[in-house]
Design a protein that fits this description.
Elements lengths: L2 H9 L2 H8 L5 E7 L8 E7 L17 H13 L4 E7 L1 H7 L1 H14 L7 E5 L10 E4 L2 H4 L1 H24 L5 H4 L5 H10 L11 H9 L1
Parallel strand pairs: 1-4, 4-5
Antiparallel strand pairs: 1-2, 2-3
Helix pairs in contact: 3-7, 4-5, 9-10
């Protein structure tokens, strides 16, 4: 690992280092993927990284190319010191409770699925679910906090894998490329073919279709 990369990664450990210094041992970072998609589930991942572990290339999943993201994801899975778990809430539940509550449910699932119970949780964003554990929210945490960045990659890669499977069943929407988000390709397909059973009924894809007709 280059010295510059090691320095960059160590700079992402500011929050964890502060908590380790205060006596916390198992610090979980939590992030979601698919919150803004028009289709399918929202995913969340929780990730605990022991002190001293660095994984080359880790960054906010949105900053990485798909190829780079998958490479880093493989490195995460290969590292036996990393403890992670995921949760997901499907489109029906999203329509029932709204996307914010569904995202919180997925985060709670991910935390409860961890093999180790964390003693502190760092959440990406401004809002966090109740979890019965000390916690802190970090705006842009996926860019600023190492464990949250790992969680962002895990959640994104696992959801993308599912969307590629869904694409095989519903290829007209181009989900292998847009992952269910409201791209021009996706909106055009919705206008032509209408929604399928996996589309979130409470999202604004109908408004997008109407706008595209103007």
């Amino acid at each position: 690992m280059l010295k510059s990369e090691r320095k960059r990664l160590q700079s992402l450990l500011h929050y964890e280092e502060d908590l380790w210094m205060r006596g916390y041992r198992h610090i979980a970072g939590v992030d979601e993927a698919g919150r803004g998609s028009l289709v399918g589930p929202v995913f969340a991942a929780a990730c605990i990284v022991p002190r001293g572990v660095l994984i080359e290339g880790v960054d906010d999943s949105k900053k990485l190319t798909p190829q780079k993201r998958e490479k880093v994801f493989s490195l995460i899975l290969a590292n036996k010191d990393v403890v992670y778990a995921v949760g997901s809430v499907d489109e029906k539940k999203i329509d029932e409770v709204n996307i914010l509550k569904a995202t919180h449910l997925a985060m709670q699932q991910a935390l409860s699925n961890l093999a180790i119970v964390p003693d502190f949780v760092l959440f990406d964003g401004r809002d966090a679910p109740e979890c019965g554990i000390e916690k802190k929210t970090v705006v842009r945490g996926d860019s600023l906090v190492f464990s949250i960045a790992l969680a962002s990659i895990i959640a994104k890669c696992m959801r993308d894998a599912l969307m590629r499977q869904y694409h095989e069943k519903f290829p007209v929407y181009g989900w292998k490329n847009n992952m269910g988000y409201g791209t021009k390709e996706h909106i055009k397909a919705l206008k032509t073919y209408g929604p399928c059973e996996l589309h979130r009924e409470t999202f604004n894809w109908r408004k997008n279709i109407s706008s595209s007709e103007e």
